[in-house]
Amino acid sequence: MSKWGIIILAVLALLTTLSYIVISGQQTAEVTKTEFETILIGNGSSPKWSPDGTRLAFLCAGGICVTDSSGKGEIIEIGPLSPKNYEWLSDSELVVRELEYGRIEGRQTLSARIKKANLDGGIETIRETHPSFEDPFPDKFSQFIVLKDGTVGYYEHPYDVKRDPVFKVIREGMQKPSETGKQMILELMSIQLVKGEKGVWLVSADRSGKKKITDREYRFVQLAPDGLKFMGNDSRNNIIVFDTTGKEMANLGRGIILSKGRMGNWSPDSKKIAYFDTEEDGHYILASEIYLINVDGSGKIQITDTPDEIEFDPVWSPDGSKIAYWTGDPKWEVFIMRLK
Fold this sequence. Notes:
By secondary structure, this protein is mainly beta. 9% of the residues lie in helices and 46% in strands. The chain has a single domain, classed as Methylamine Dehydrogenase, Chain H, CATH 2.130.10.10. The protein is built from 2 helices and 26 strands. The strands form 7 sheets. A 4-stranded mixed beta sheet has the order 1-23-22-21, with no helix packed on it. A 4-stranded antiparallel beta sheet has the order 2-26-25-24, with no helix packed on it. A 4-stranded antiparallel beta sheet has the order 3-4-5-6, with no helix packed on it. The longest helix is centred in the N-terminal third of the chain and has 25 residues.
């Protein structure tokens, strides 16, 4: 090979290395460790803020526990309940979804209930199914869905291939009832609600309108509170931010935004994202830490530093001043972290 040929190959190799460094830099922002005041609330999991941000609920041994937003007040236990998931209906009332598995004549059955529970201890069953043998249980209703205006509802028979899912309102939001169902929600259509379609879609709650965002499949998709962008995990667990035309806005690098149907990982102003990143051995999660990052990938902050703990599911308070999260086995503890 000529002298110039060797020089050209060397330059190409250098450019390739530099390109790799630039691309890696885009996906691995500089991380700042920041200490904030952290308050241990008690043993439990899955914390959720009340609509006005003055209270925090979480799952506990007897059902649902509630404390004030300072994290230092009395803890009220509401139960007995066996929540599969729950949502706040108002600042003093929650709605709970229970699933009960059983056996009749050697066959597994499933029954489901929706209950309202208030902070005074009152519990009312508002929906209940009979034990069903079928799989995937056509009478089983969906998890609770919170629309942009504050409406809380769920889908009836979302798994029944013979019927279309019907959105049922438990609590009305700020929209007129005639407009409630027109609000858009973000869905992974490979699951159940639009049969035979894959990718990510914006769909009206009443199923009257739908818009495909992308053909590619992402996990844990969540629409931002401003309704103008969404995020999801790709196959490598990178957090990708898109606008609602499907255009990629940012690749934030590795992290998990699992939030069990909620949009709590978005900050209330839709400018930041809270997420956790795990350390694994190929079989088990060994540890995790919680991070905050701007939606453009800048300003990445590590807000926990506990190598022996596994933190999950950080959720913002409505005013953005605090984050609640919980740790897994063996402690199962709920924390509040003050950011401001």
